[in-house]
């Protein structure tokens, strides 16, 4: 018998607004004894059906899969996966020139909460962020191979670091379908080594694709500093036109990969230098001044209770960068923290600019690309915020 979750009076309103999370504090009672990852039905206080989704103990108790009274099985997942494919076909994502790296499933943004699927040339890399999705891995791999048979030859499961640790699942990453050793992808004609086995996320920050392309035009003849650079995505684009580029990351492995990516794209790399260094300390210790700086740090806040500290961190980081930019320079600054909304991020950058006493103008406001869609009912899925600033 399917477990029922009965909500407290008034707590059904967020579900009526189609928000895909049910918080534990909204639950009046459980009818049954669900295990983590089970499909449960959600009802209001008068026991009217509301939704169905994956159960998990913790703050987010249910990740809603559907607001219709339908069965969650192979047909459901097949339909949802094919919907994500159609969306990307119709929005032109698959038609981007000289590009074979995309996000196929963006969790709540694609109405599949707890699931990420990225495409690296002919390999699909899956990450389960919930136990419910983890239990569907074999089925999902079959669906992907069937639905994208002309594009995909292998499916790799990289869920070891994303599964809830309290679930106690012993998991090892590995191929679910096929095998693929080649790991070079192409993005707008630039080539990148991608380490989907050991790298961060699924191996590459696909969400910055359009913002990387933008930096090409702004870097003409500039001295560029790319901080929190990971494997050098922004650096590769900047090097096309820049006078020189400094790539900084605290990870030696990441900087080595960045230098490999430079060598992959440019016959000569005398204009590039990599530094294994903490970004804050690098700016404190260098006397160099730059014409263009990229700040793309990891999430400073993953929970609401550390939001204030995160905003102070963004302020301090941007203040240091603004002080290091030459007159007439450009700052690309980002936040990927889900709990930091666009307004809060802009205020922290405003505070940083005010503290330096320099004149700052906003050239552009940036976000995530079409293959990282934002669910209009789930504002939290708009996690990537960016500003392009002109520093006088």
Describe the structure.
By secondary structure, this protein is an alpha/beta fold. It folds into three domains: 4-66, Roll (Archaeosine Trna-guanine Transglycosylase, Chain: A, domain 4), CATH 2.30.130.10; 74-186, RNA methyltransferase domain (HRMD) like (Transcription Regulator spoIIAA), CATH 3.30.750; 205-391, Rossmann fold (3-Layer(aba) Sandwich), CATH 3.40.50.150. Helices cover 27% and strands 29% of the residues. The strands form four sheets. Strands 16-15-14-17-18-20-19 form a seven-stranded mixed beta sheet, sandwiched between helices. The chain has a six-stranded mixed beta sheet with strand order 2-6-5-4-1-3.
What key attributes describe this structure?
3 domains, Transcription Regulator spoIIAA, six-stranded mixed β-sheet, alpha/beta, 10 helices, single chain, seven-stranded mixed β-sheet, Archaeosine Trna-guanine Transglycosylase, Chain: A, domain 4, Rossmann fold, 27% helix, globular, 392 residues
